[in-house]
UniProtKB/TrEMBL annotation:
NCBIfam families: ComEC_N-term. It comes from Candidatus Ryanbacteria bacterium RIFCSPLOWO2_01_FULL_48_26. InterPro entries: ComEC_N (IPR004477), Competence_DNA_uptake (IPR052159). It is found in: Cell membrane. The keyword Transmembrane helix applies. Residues 198-460 form the ComEC/Rec2-related protein domain. The chain crosses the membrane at residues 7-33, 53-72, 222-244, 256-284, 296-314, 320-339, 360-384, 390-412, 419-437, 443-460. Pfam families: Competence. The keyword Transmembrane applies. It is a multi-pass membrane protein. This is ComEC/Rec2-related protein domain-containing protein.
Amino acid sequence: MHPSELLFWGILSFLVGIAVASLGWSILALAGIAGIAGTCAVILNKSISPHRYIFIFFAFAFLGTFYFNAYLNFESYKQAIIFDKKISFSGIIFEAPRRFERYQYFDVRLLAPYAGKVRIISSPAIEFKYGDAIEAAGSIEAQDSPATPPISSFPEIKIIAEHRGFWLKGMLLEFKSRLVGRIIEFLPTNEGALLAGITLGDRSHITSDFKTQMATSGTTHLVALSGYNIAIIAIVVSQLFGNFVSRRKNFYLTNLLILAFVAMVGADPSVVRAALMAFLVLLAREVGRIYDIKNAIAVAGGIMVLVNPTSLVYDVGFQLSFASLLGIVYLSPAIATFFKLADDASSWKQNAITTLSAQLAVVPIVLNSFGKVSLLAIVANVLILEFMPLTMFFGFVLAGLANISSYVGFIVAKTVQPLLAYEVWVIQTFSAISIPIQIQFSLWVSLLYYVGLAFVCVAIKNGNMPSPQKGNDQKK
């Protein structure tokens, strides 16, 4: 087996081991997965020896199960918390607080005599910031999911000091907060909240009604800064740059824009992860052959899971980002080949294929996590994504120039407002005419769904699935 193949299958087996440990499955389940995976691997690659593959699978899978349990034990060892009893504790906020209409939450790293991390849910009346040192009194409850830190709901709380976090991250988050404030100042409620979300990933100003409308229309990802969102935006921006510069310069300019975007929104871990996903999508398109990128995807996924192994099964954001990445990288070119679309096809067709690929890749995750998905989501997304680069451009211009001149900010806001009004209209319209699918996928049905997508991609690549365009040509 070639070293690159060993790396790919080794990481994949390691991830399977972590998934099995996360779900609490037995060794029999691991053996069953090994048999299924070995059969699929041999079908897809005749040169693979099934005995050698199964040995590699078990070796790396057991390593994955061992690492997951070792990680949980280490995290438990670092934790010193009294649960289900009112106590007084202090700590430092180490991530940017998430603010909503009726509440906010933030993660705190506890100070002596306690140790560990606690998520505090509190009233939005007090504005907490990254780096604030707080004192609180209340009970702390352990959570069933190992990915969720213990939670203290609405404790008595006060700020005792500021700027106790990393100074650079604090500066970036304060800068982002000022930019968001300028956007909100010059635009109506929904339009301002949408632009702040699209441009800077801020969702604190989205009303509950508009949030429901976005969820119903399948457009929530536009303000979520997931790998799906940033990857699609990166592709659209790449297509825009492609009209003016060479392919290589286009690749570097788009990635530079992604880096600037990550810095502007405060380099949140989920945004860094999403940006990495977007980079891999662009790299796959730059290389031009999807199999040249599989090891890069495997290594990136392996590193992210190595940092936090609970994310593989318990972090929906990670699952959506990774699934959409795989959909865009592998399913998108297969769909384009199936429909005989050239690389220079019109942008709305490319946006439609990209959106459809990502949507198909996340269907089981969305249904199992949120209960429903809209059949018309792809239409709503295509209608909005066509104008996304222009919207983001005006968003950055407004956020930047409004800090220099309120008069200029007012002019830019009035320029972009009709565009935002159209996008809000699309969201509200497709929320009203939504055709929801409400099906619960079991884990095994979800696995069969993804195996089916993989075989469809392989069949199209090998020319075993006739294109409808070819059928039309034969009729003529």
